[in-house]
Automatic annotation (TrEMBL):
Domain of life from the UniProt record: Bacteria
Domain DDH: 16-167
Protein name, per record: DHH family phosphoesterase
A Pfam family recorded for this sequence: DHH
Gene3D superfamilies with a match to the protein in the record: 3.10.310.30, inorganic pyrophosphatase (n-terminal core) (3.90.1640.10)
Source organism of this protein record: Chitinophaga pollutisoli
InterPro entries, per database record: DDH_dom, DHH_sf, DHHA1_dom, Oligoribo/pAp-PDE_c-di-AMP_PDE
Length: 334
């Protein structure tokens, strides 16, 4: 993979570009993709952003979000955009399988493939890119790429808002270890450019419906289990809870973090029966590596302190498997 700045000559004449991200995109996947979208459009390219699946309502305020094509519900439009694509940008994921049903179509493309990502162990299928696990967010990598290409004059309020949103959420509102001086310098630059950060916090965190809060209360009371001997807390959510509280895509985001707020807890797992499969989210504090854990036991991956995986067993069996895996790692959890 050649360094990202080597794409500069390619971007000098108008190209047909597709930008895509991981399925069920979060604010970093969507924010980095839309920042890239505005930047490339301003440079005169023909750009389409495709999301492999639908995405949470709390992202819909993002400038340009109304133009994102959902590969599942707008398949014809997405396939048309992919036809004859010259450059494919893959943002905020490290393996093509993270694009779900889009994967075979992306593999068939004859385009130049560019990766911009901060997850561990990327697949070796990209021509150009940056894979920087020390970056707090993919949005930050897009910001740095724009600077490296000498194009910082293109950073307007739309781009600033998208970059800030991705970084704010991936750093847990600027509290995780990844929140380096480099992050704060970028944010200072965005603020000097006129960004109003308060609006973005409200748009993302103060925009839920009542049912989501009631679901959180119900889950904390009834679905949480704490294993003090292994410093682990879990929450297992049956599909019937998702139906009962009428949860939408994105409504369970952030729930796993509550578990880590218990004194002494080092490993937190949120295990949700999504009906088609069981999804797992892992978070850790300190030196327990949940990327390795997710890869080893649940066909997943991610970052050192935040990862996810899946299981095709029932919810109960998945919880049993998790408990066994937790005991196998007892020493590392002390
Ligand atoms: P979340 O728990 O918020 O869904 O995901 C946490 C982190 O783990 C994210 O960086 C996400 O990209 C990654 N991740 C979540 N699920 C999976 C998965 O099934 N496979 C892989 N490789 N990574 C995942
Ligand atoms: Mn990210």
């Amino acid at each position: 993979m050649k360094p990202i700045e080597d794409i500069k000559p390619l971007l000098e004449s108008p190209k047909k570009v597709v930008i895509t991200m991981h399925q069920k995109p979060d604010a970093d996947a969507m924010g980095s993709s839309l920042a890239m979208f505005h930047y490339l459009r301003r440079k005169g390219h023909d750009v389409t952003v495709i999301s492999p699946t639908n995405f949470p309502d709390f992202l819909k305020w993002m400038p340009g979000c109304d133009q994102v094509v959902d590969f599942e519900s707008q398949n014809d439009k997405a396939m048309k955009a992919l036809e004859g694509t010259e450059i494919l940008f893959c943002l905020d994921f490290n393996a093509m399988s993270r694009t779900r049903n889009m994967e075979p179509h992306l593999e068939r493309l004859h385009s130049v493939k560019v990766l911009i990502d901060h997850h561990l162990e990327p697949q070796p299928v990209f021509d150009f890119g940056v894979s920087d696990t020390s970056a707090a967010s993919t949005a930050q990598l897009v910001y740095e790429m724009i600077y490296r290409l000498g194009d910082e004059h293109y950073i307007d309020n739309d781009i600033a808002q998208c970059i800030y949103a991705g970084t704010m959420t991936d750093t847990g509102s600027f509290r995780f270890a990844s929140t380096s001086a480099r992050v704060h310098r970028m944010v200072a630059d965005l603020l000097e450019r006129g960004l109003e950060h308060e609006y973005i916090h409200q748009a993302i965190y103060d925009n839920f419906l009542e049912n989501r809060l009631r679901f959180i209360g119900h889950s904390l009371l009834n679905r949480m289990e704490v294993f003090y001997e292994t410093n682990t807390a879990i929450m297992a959510i049956p599909y019937s809870d998702l139906k009962r509280f009428d949860l939408q895509t994105g409504d369970t985001e952030g729930l796993v973090n509550f578990l880590l707020s218990i004194q002494g807890i080092k490993l937190a797992a949120l295990i949700i029966d999504r009906n088609s499969e069981v999804k797992l989210s892992f978070r850790s504090k300190g030196n327990f590596d949940v990327n390795t854990f997710a890869r080893k036991y649940f066909e997943g991956g991610g970052h050192f302190n935040a990862s996810g995986g899946r299981s095709s067993d029932s919810l109960d069996r998945t919880v049993q498997r998790f408990i066994r895996a937790m005991h196998e790692n007892e020493d590392l959890l002390q």
